[in-house]
Design goal:
It is a single chain. The protein is an all-beta fold. The protein is built from no helices and eight strands. The chain has strands spanning about 5-15, 20-25, 30-40, 45-55, 65, 80-85, 90-95, 100-110. Strands 1-8-3-6 form a four-stranded antiparallel beta sheet, with no helix packed on it.
Amino acid sequence: MPAYLSRYAKDHTLVAGVALDIDIPVDGARDWCFVLKNTGSTNSVTAMTVARYPLGTAEIGEDPVSISTGIPLAAGDALPIEATREPVTTLRVTLTSTSGTTVRIAGGGW
C-alpha cells in the first residue's frame, strides 16, 4: 500500500437529537477507509448520511446519501466508511443520536 495522502482521527460528541456535520479531509485520495466507532457506553447512533465533495465543502458536493446498513450503531460497535477509485477532497458525514453519544472516526486515504 502506498503512503497515506490523508489521515484523520478525532472524537466527536453527539448531542441528543441534534445532527452533527463532520468534514473529513480526504485530500484527493482515490482509495480511502475511515472507521466510525460508537465510543459511548449506552446510546446508539440513530441516523447517518454521507456526501462527497470533489473540490471541498466551499464548492458543490453531492446530495447526502442516507446510510441504513449498520444503523442504528450500538454502543461499542464500529462501521467502515470506504471507497475505491473515488478521489474526493472532503467527505461530509452527518450523524444523529436520539439520546446522545460519543463517536470516534479514524482512518485515511491513499
